[in-house]
Amino acid sequence: MRKSIKFGLGAALALSLGASAALAENIKIAFIDPLSGPFASTGSNGLSQYEFAAETLVNEKGGVLGGQKFEIVAFDNKISPKESLIQLQVAIDQGIRYVVQGNSSGVAHALTEAIEKHNKRNPDNRVLYLNYSAVDPALTNENCNFWHFRFDANADIKMDALTDVIAQNDAIKKVYIIGQDYSFGKAVASAAVSMLGEKRPDIEIVGNELHPIGKVKDFTPYARKIVSSGADAVITGNWGSDMLGLGKSVLENGFTGPIYTYYAAADGITAAFGETGKGSLRLVSEGPLNPIASDRAADYVTAFKAKYPDGNVSQARITNLIEMLAKAIDQAGTATDVVAVGKALEGMEIDSLWGGKILMRPQDHQAIQNVHVFAHTDEGVQFDYDNSGYGMVVENSVEMASADSETTCKMKRP
């Protein structure tokens, strides 16, 4: 009898300790993006932003579910879809239920397809994919699925804002479109042609070409074609080293018109352009720093710079993602049942740290938010990029951009 009582007390104690350990266990989030190679600076700065957002916006406030903390686990995908799938499997084998990725829509397509297949085969070990920057519209249209949520405005939403600005500029008669040769670059080009045709049918497209992603060492031949075409403006979705290489070469070869971009800021790009980018570079994005939305946002940026002096708070969508994920987990009452967390994310609305609201549109899992067109300048800059004195200042804004836009998504829910 006494032996039986001792066993019962020991089992109870073990269960209690096990419950406490489970409660205290971190919620791991796999960050799968480039940490080496030509796009390493983009991935590394994104990782810093995730680590800071998790610590500041979640962990320091007591975590989720009464005390569980977020932990960002980094995986270097070398910007390769094949390597990304290898790293995804490593993350799943480690029991990680949440994956964040943003650099390259080619990678995004590989991940969303693999995660959908994994979740069908492994209903007890499902994974959510939180896409923070891969903006091929197909990901929330014909290739949508329940497990994928996009926190950035897609390429069509951004192009809608850019072409509104271009359409208002009567001096622009000829446009040259150039981008990286993969799904996102093609989506940007297609949207530019279509939307300019609708809004300014008088504008002539004098160039529309794609180049290999991450492989061009000298953009001079492309720049000379742009200048010789007589283009009044350039549109490009290039990012990372390809954005820097193209932009610098175009300006060095004498182009003086506006260059409308998706990613011409931070990660060394702003510092490299410096004075040469003033009056030329335009950026479509979310989350303005100049002007900053609030004292809370200003304090956040200041604290980030104190911890990462060489870093930039250049992707407001990262903080939006972290705050929405934390809210969804608390609402679902679980971090392990990702179906419940996903359903909590659907239709969720939050007040963004950067001003305005963020709505996760339930029908296609596309975040709807304010979108801005910025100018590269050193005037009116409270928070610069790359410690350069230059930053991005808001010129035009669209509230809850494309909130009523159509989607071809036919989502099957678990």
From TrEMBL:
Q: What's one Pfam family here?
A: Peripla_BP_6
Record carries keyword Transport: yes
Q: Which UniProt keywords apply?
A: Amino-acid transport, Signal, Transport
Sorted alphabetically, which InterPro entries does this protein's record hold?
A: BCAA_transport, Leu-bd, Peripla_BP_I
Ranges for domain Leucine-binding protein come to 27-374
Gene3D superfamilies, per the entry: 3.40.50.2300
> Which CDD domains does this chain map to?
PBP1_SBP-like (cd06329)
What Gene Ontology terms for biological process does this UniProt record contain?
amino acid transport
Q: Where would one find the signal peptide in this protein?
A: 1-24
Family recorded in the similarity comment: Belongs to the leucine-binding protein family.
Q: What is this protein called?
A: Branched-chain amino acid ABC transporter substrate-binding protein
